[in-house]
Each structure stands twice: as structure tokens, then as C-alpha cells.
């Protein structure tokens, strides 16, 4: 570290480019500082550094990371502790542009596999972004010494060394995440696609905040007796003793589940909790014991999206002028066509459950009532509505559906379970819905026709897309949560409601670049996604790095699901499939 001090003292006041001299490795037996990338000016992307502490000094209890789930949870917890230490230790702005910035990629309400903190048998490491201080284009060397040689070691010590951490909070965090994954492992054997614990707090502070509504302003979830199940936990709930190793709540069964009710009574709030529950949540979020199977995919209409080579014939067929739909493409798909394509794309890569909201769906894709059937004969209507396929999806292919439906009772005949939300309290109204279906027949004709097929094998062409931008080489940028700049192409992920962190989007963008290396071997999209997930499992997210060595991997990736990666590839404007 003395060597780093000397360099910074020597370049104090020089032009900003002289900061390049500090790239390298510094430290002693207490901490090693890696300066991997140095920014070119105060307004450029911040510099990338890593602080590594030997395991013996960190003294993190092995019991907190003795399996993959606990290790993921502890790494996430440590990243949050580093963020807290930054807020306490770092003085903030020190000059022009990003000068004085120290940042770590810690998460929001969800717990995700990240690259921000890495645990190895020999050490623990945090990966940070640092805005090296400058005044205009001149180096502020003395302030850089304070940041790199004083503040960074203190931040690392406060965030990574066990004696400085809140022990009870760390254990509770790790146990809570492991409990959630243990519940997820019980869903299939219990015949469930999701679970919502009694006492869960589902409403959020606002439409733009993912933080929980204050408990004294919210209605806590309470399962209908007829749907209540009790599941096992690995760790007792706080303050519950031995009895706390079991948890009760509403089991959402496999099959077709309708969520109904009046406007503003909590239908979409429940669905939003289910769609986010494919990830574990932090303690105190309110949804930490809401758990959904990992293969549940939200599907909605995306008027105007690009569709390439998708077999939408189970839902749309017999187009005018004999236009085929087994390999359908459109530069600007309609609402119904885009929803059919998104549904088939989700099934292509293995979705076992579909989550849908009437408000985000194309009306003509969801249903054609009896009067419209009488006016427009089926021979003149290419769309087979979802209401005529949803039952078959489960009966023939084992794909469940959870559907928010507030305006159409034609789904009553198809549903296994009907839950009514009444002032945010769920009521099992399945029997009454069946009685109504018998008392008031729909009179519509099922338009399902030929048996439903869901198999689709498309082989992406590696040469059909590229991250290159002119002669400038690879250019990948993620300016916001649901938008990617991939080379010269913009990819709109606006409909991907299950993307929860911009670091996931960043990883998706780099995954698209990595996928090109796997193509050309005749593998279809599902096989490519399986291979990519195996790569993540074996190598971690370091396999996405554009920077060569694993140790230089950027610290701002979070693991996405294969469904969102495939969705991004499907929305690329130049992608072609065989």
C-alpha cells in the first residue's frame, strides 16, 4: 500500500491519464487491493477495483456457506453490508464528474447470485467501482490516497470481517433464504406451483417502489381454510421455538387457477407477488415466504414487438391469403400475435407454469364470447382463444396457468381453482364459480380444434446478430432495467416483468454475446439455454466476462433466468432461426 501512496503522490496534479500508472496489485497480509481497470477521465465509467481479505482474517463461520444456497445468501448479505459501510465511511464527491464515488452492486428486495462478493476457500473478495478524484482533467492525488489507502480498506473490513458484522442478522438472513429454497423444493411433491404464507405483506409502498407498505396500513395475507397447507422449514421462524419449523399458508395448486374480484381488491398485487417469488426475498420484505416454482413465466401482449420464426399455429392459424403460422415472423406483431408468440417461446425453453393478467393481455387472444362467435364464423377467425387451450395445456402437457381475470366468466368451466380477492383477503369461491357456470351456461363453442402441440425447435444463426458497432469492436450497454444496447441494435425488454435488477439485464446482454460461441453446432434454443445454465453452474457468472481472467470479472452481474435470456434473444431485431 505504501507503493500505491508513492505513485499517487507522484502523479498528484498531473493529467488524468496518469492514473493508468496505478493499475496493479497492492497490499499485505491483511488486505490485497487489485486495481483492474482505470477510467480514462472523471466522466467515464468508474474504475474497477477489488479488495480481497484472507479467510483467516475474515473469520466467516463455515456454517454460513456450507452449501450453494447458503453461500449465495451470505455473499448477497455481505454485499449489502459493504454498501452500508460505504455510506458510513466514504466522504462522497471529491471533484469533477464521478470523482469520489465508491459503489458496490448490492441488491434490492430479491436475493440473487451476484459477482459483487465472491467467497473462496482461501479468501473473500468485494468488487467495487471507484470514481478516481480529479479536478477537471487534473489528478487529485492526495484525495485518491485517502480513498484507496484509507477508505477502501475500512469499507472492506466493515463489510467482510465477521467481528464487524451483525451476527444474528447474518444468520437470520442466510437461514431465511435457505428456508425459501427448501419450500420451493417441496412445491412439486405437494402438487403446488406456489405458496403464500399466512401473514405475508404483499402490497408495496407505491407503484414505483418495491418496498413493503407499512404494516399498520396493509392487510396481511390470510389463506382460505380450504387452500391452507403446512410445509416444513429447515430453520425455525424467529421467536417460534421448535414449532417454528412448520409454516402454513395458501397453496396454489397445479392446474388452472383463476384470481378474480373487483377492481383495487388485490388481484394484481397477488399475481405480482407470485411472479417475483421465483427469487427468494430478503427478511423484512413481507414476501419472504411467498414462493413460486422457478419455471413460472409471466406472459403478456406486446403490441409492436418483433417475432421471428415462431410456431403460433396452436393459437393463430388460417390467416388470409394462406399465410402460414408454423414459422411466423413479423416486424410489428399485433397484441394477440405477440402474446401467442411469447407463450410459445416460454414453452420452448421449458416453462412449467404461465402467469397472466387480463389487464396486460390481448382481449381477442383471451376469449371470443358466444355473440361474437355467432357474428364472425370460425372459418373467418384465425385466433383460437386461450380459454379453449388453457385446460388442454395442463391436461396434455402439464403446464399450469395462474390467471387474473376480472371481466370474463367464460373461464369458470376451465378452472380447477377460483380465488376471489376481497379487500386484499383471498376467498376460495371455486364451488360457487362452478355453480354459476352450470346455472348460466356460456353458450360459446370451444374452438380448440386440432390437438395442442407445444414442441418447437428453432436453431439460432450466430451470424444473424452481433455486439460489434462498426469498427469499434464489442459494444454492450445497459442504460436501464429493461433496455439493452447490443452493438448497433436496441433490445426492448419492457414486457419482462420478472426482470428485477439491472445487473440481471447486464448479464443477459453479455450472455447473448457468449451464446454466439455455442452456436453453429446445430443446437436448438432450448439446448443452448441448458448449456448456458450449465456454464453458470460450473463457472459462475465469470464465464460472461469480456475481460479475460476470472479475477478481473466485473462485479456488477446478477444471474438471470434462462427465460429472460431467451426472451432477449427473441426480441433482437436481426436474429434469424433455422
Give the key terms:
single chain; 578 residues; alpha+beta; six-stranded antiparallel β-sheet; six-stranded mixed β-sheet; globular
* Number of E-state strands: 25
Q: What class would the helix/strand composition place it in?
A: alpha+beta
Number of alpha- plus pi-helical segments: 14
> Are there runs of 5+ residues with pLDDT below 50, and where?
547-551
Portion of residues in helices? 25-40%
Cα separation of the termini: 56 Å
- What portion of residues belong to β-strands? 15-25%
How many discrete domains? Answer: 3
How does the major sheet shape up?
6 strands, antiparallel
Q: If you average the pLDDT, what whole number results?
A: 94
Instruction: Indicate the radius of gyration in whole angstroms.
Output: 26 Å
Overall spatial form: globular
Can you put this structure into words, describing what you see?
- The chain is an alpha+beta fold and 578 residues long.
- The chain folds into three domains: 2-165, no CATH class; 296-439, no CATH class; 462-570, no CATH class.
- It has 14 helices and 25 strands.
- It has helices at 2-11, 55-58, 68-89, 141-160, 167-187, 267-276, 335-348, 363-366, 370-375, 390-397, 430-439, 502-518, 525-539, 562-570; strands at 24-27, 32-37, 47-54, 102-104, 117-119, 123-130, 134-135, 138-139, 192-197, 204-206, 209-212, 228-232, 246-253, 256-260, 290-292, 296-298, 307-310, 328-330, 353-357, 400-404, 417-422, 425-428, 476-480, 483-486, 489-492.
- Strands 1, 2, 3, 4, 5 and 6 form a six-stranded antiparallel beta sheet that branches. The protein has a six-stranded mixed beta sheet with strand order 16-19-20-14-21-22, with helices on both faces. Strands 12-13-9-15 form a four-stranded antiparallel beta sheet, with helices on both faces.
- Strand 21 and strand 22 (425-428) form a beta hairpin.
- Helix 1 packs antiparallel against helix 4 (141-160) and helix 3 packs antiparallel against helix 5.
- The radius of gyration is 26 Å and the shape is globular.
